Structure formats: structure tokens, C-alpha cells
Amino acid sequence: MILEKTTIGSAPHAYLTRTTAHRMWLVSACLVPPVLQSAAGDGWRSLSVALAAVVAALLSEAVLDVGTERRSVADGSAAATALVLALLLPNLINPAAAALGAIFAIVVVKRSFGGLGSNWLNPAVAGWLFIRASWPAAFSAALSRSPLNELGVAVSKGLSDPNGSPLAILKVAGFKASGIDTLVSRSLNDGILSWMGAELPGGYVDLFMSADPGIIADRGALALLLATIILLAHRSMRSAVPGVFLFVLAALVRFGGALPYGGSFGGGDVLFSFLTGGTILGAFLLIADPATGPKSERSVVAIAAVTAAIAYGLRYRGAEQYAAPLAAGVVNAFVPYVRMVESRYLYSRWRHS
Length: 353
Prior knowledge:
Blueprint: H1 20-39, H2 45-65, H3 77-88, H4 95-111, H5 123-134, H6 136-142, H7 147-156, H8 166-173, H9 179-190, H10 192-196, H11 204-208, H12 216-219, H13 221-233, H14 240-256, H15 270-275, H16 279-286, H17 297-316, H18 323-332, H19 335-351
Helix pairs in contact: 1-2, 1-3, 1-13, 2-3, 2-4, 3-4, 3-5, 4-5, 5-6, 7-8, 13-16, 14-17, 16-18, 17-18
């Protein structure tokens, strides 16, 4: 009898149409354009933040591979982790903080718990939380002139809008739509939207290509949206996860998202919620990550819905502007318990059926 040798590939052992290395390098390639979009408007400071994170992550991974048979650098997970971390960071933050956050993400969170597929927390989220906890003043200062921070300051001073529009409050606070925003909005309103009886207020186009300080993901929103389309087309993520997350979040924001800004029930601004606060990055790259998520489809859908509810609560009932990444980190901490339940009840039942 001839026995064939079977090789078990590297984690995560999730059923996707691409190998782990292919998926990670594809993610890395897709996350470069958002960095470049942000960098083009800030004197390339965003690029220096991203480069610092990527170099630190790759060097950390390479050093930890010394003396072992592992070649983890080749699977692309370190580069992908560093780029996701960079997108979560303010474009004006010191690149040294990005480098230290990347080292923490790779050495402490990713490798010390067994490597890719064995983490109890998404390493990029962990690096982001590490930076926020270690240098809170620097992190806040880098976002002090961002639209979300100015919106929070304006609301705390009593500014409100009868329709509950955050963009209307920002306009009163001094944020004006750019010339490109005015031109594109007018063209859409005079063209396609006029046929539909709809109108696009000023300010939304700027959300796709923000020139104001903020996290790199928000500043590169247009390129990030295109990146998510490519990743979905290549089936590099579970498409149900961002779909469920965004649907639940949209329903909650529409129902109660206008209340903190002086509006009434049913008037929440869903588009503003999606294009700010790292929501798109959280939906498509953090919550949909198979390496740190549940395995069964039922659990995946449930986790996405719960994460959306937490994100809504943190942002609209709490004081956390970047709620989607934080909610992803909170839920990540409980995923090992979900996997344990899956193994005990779902897969054991399947094995004995």
C-alpha cells in the first residue's frame, strides 16, 4: 500500500477560495491605495506612518522566524496587519508610535499566541489600542482638528440641528464644503438626482476624499471602498459579515442616530456613519477577518449583528467616535468562547450524526 503524505496548511483553516498567503498579499496590495489617497493630501505624512508600521512589522516577524523553520514573513500577514493598523491611525501621529504599535501587534499579540489563526484578538486592533492607551495625549492631539472631534466639541457646547444632521452642525462649526464637493453635488443634483426627486446636500462628497486631519482610513475612503470591491470579487472574505454588520448598523443609526445631534427618531444619517469613524474598514477588514472570527455561518452572522449593535451603542450612546474598530476588538475577545461552543455542540453533533 502506498501512503500519500498529507500536509496541513497554515492557519486559519477557514474555507475560502484563496490560500492564506494569496489572501494576505491581496489585502496588502488593496490597502496601499487608501494610504496613497490620504498621503496625497497631507504632504505624504500618511505614507510615512504606513511605512513605519510595515517595516517594523516585517522586521519583527523576520526576527521571530530566526532559529525556526517558520517563514511567516512570506505569508503576508505581517504586512497586512501593519497596513490595517496604519489605516486606523491618525495621519498626523508620530510614525514612531505606528512602529511601536506594529511591533506590539506582531510580537505580543500575533506570535505569542501561536501565530496567524490562533489570536484571541485581531493584532491590528490590539496595536491600535496599545497606541491609544500608551500615548493618549498624542493620539488625541493628532485628531484635535478632525471633523469628528470638532463635531463632538460642537455638540458638547450645545450646537444641534432640528434634522439631526452632523454635517449641518459641522457647517455651523466652521467646516465648509470644498469646491470639488460643491461642483460634484451640483452636477448630481442637476442630473441624475433631479430625475429621482432627490437632492444630495453639500459635504458628502468631501467624506469620500477628506483633506482634513483624521484616521487614514477615513481620509482614503474612496480608495478603501474600491479595495473592498476587489476583495469581495476575489472572495477573500465572507461577504455576509460586512453585509449583516452594515445592515444592522444602518437600521440602528436610521432609527436613533439623529438624537445626539438634536433630531428625532427615524432621521439618522446613515451615510455619514458609514464614511466616518473607520466603519468601512471595520466592516470589511476587521469583523470579516476569518482568522479572528467564528467558523460556522450562524455564528458569523450573529457576531456581525452583535458587533453592529455594540458599535452603535459606543458611538451614539457613548463617546467613542471610532466605534466600529473598538467594537470589533470587544467582540474578538469573546470569539474563543464562541469557537469552543461551536466545537462542542455544532461540530461534535456533525461528527456523530
